[in-house]
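Posting for a labmate who doesn't have an account.
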Amino acid sequence: MSKLAILGGEKAIKNDYTECFKWPIITKEMEEKVLEVLRKGAMSGTDLTEEFEKEYATLYGMKYALCHNNGTSAIHSALFGLKIGKGDEVICPSMTYWASCLPVLSLGGTVVFADIDEESLCIDPNDIERHITEKTKCIIVVHYAGYPADMDRIIPIARKYNLKILEDCSHSHWCFYKGKLTGTFGDVSAFSLMSGKSFPIGEGGIMLTNDLEIYERAIIFGHYERHSNITIDYLKNGIGVPWGGYKYRMHQLSSAVGIVFIKIFKEIFEEIDRAMNYFCDLLDTLPGIKTHRPPKNSGLTKGGWYAPFAHYKKEQLNGLSITRFCEALRAEGVYTHPGCNKPLHLHPVFHNIDIYNDGKPTVIRNSERDIRTKIGSLPISENIGKRVFSIPRFVKFDKNVIEEYFSAFEKVVKNHKELLKDDPGDPPTIGNWGLTFRI
């Protein structure tokens, strides 16, 4: 095996393979559809958006879909649809993107964090019940990095305590859990559709539900131009202005892209799945690496493989830090980074920041108890950054390119002992508050 590039050797990745990673995929039909909207000056209309909503709802077998200007506002509207308000507690995994739960605070609610499962990186069903109180109203389930959460165990807990379920499916477009799509289990679900996601239409989000009241509350909250669609009496009484004071309409350039992408995404996802599983099969032969994907024949799928990761087993590589391991891979030409999302319960906004000038930290402004999560109470979330790293996301299947990238991993693993001498170790925390990284 040749000398490691980080120590002066030649890089394992010798060519530019940008086309194997280029995302989002833009077609001529998308361009023409967008130009049609521009030429009509219909960017702020809703006709194309409503067409896209109907197709997306049909795709998922759901009654109602409502587009938003981004995934964050879709989650915000979903929470309002669930009637989350002053003093309500919402349970959420700590290791996720901030948009999964931060909108709870603007509604007067409180976020209570639960730990994650070390393998799936999703909320740990074993850690939910201890956080439930008489104030708990909802569980937010994040299907993290396209790995479906354990709905067989989460749903009975929600039913036992009469809690609502909001699925954050921003990472899990077209992911199946035992024959059923993520986003169809809970009372409401929300998806980000921004350009880095697996279903990229520019900038946008969409909410799905089978509950008419949730749907119409979301409309009254941030879609004033569609108030004529409201049928529920207590909501009709207040039509004309958005109750939340928000304007969450999705511009129709995104809708145009979505109408085209919905026709072709399955074929694209199939190629991604083929490429990524081939790559992961190779990686899983190496010591120190276990890819983050459901077991084969489990009935769980990863859809478009947003933000793929692998578990790092440093004990199998003589204790080599994940930081040094990733540095060596980058030197070989592999785009990678250690860690994932930082645990939210460690961020000051969930401890001591007074966002709304209430004279006390916002996270406890409407709470009868101090629900702030203490450091050390969610050990997996707090330490997972040193146990996972990102891997390349192939959107095209090219056996030779995939194998060349694998050779870079193989090279680093087989020569890992040479990295131990100058290994600085890992910093106290690893990860980012965001998760969209580019090749």
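Reply:
Got it, the structure tokens are right above this. The first strand starts at residue 64 and ends at 68.
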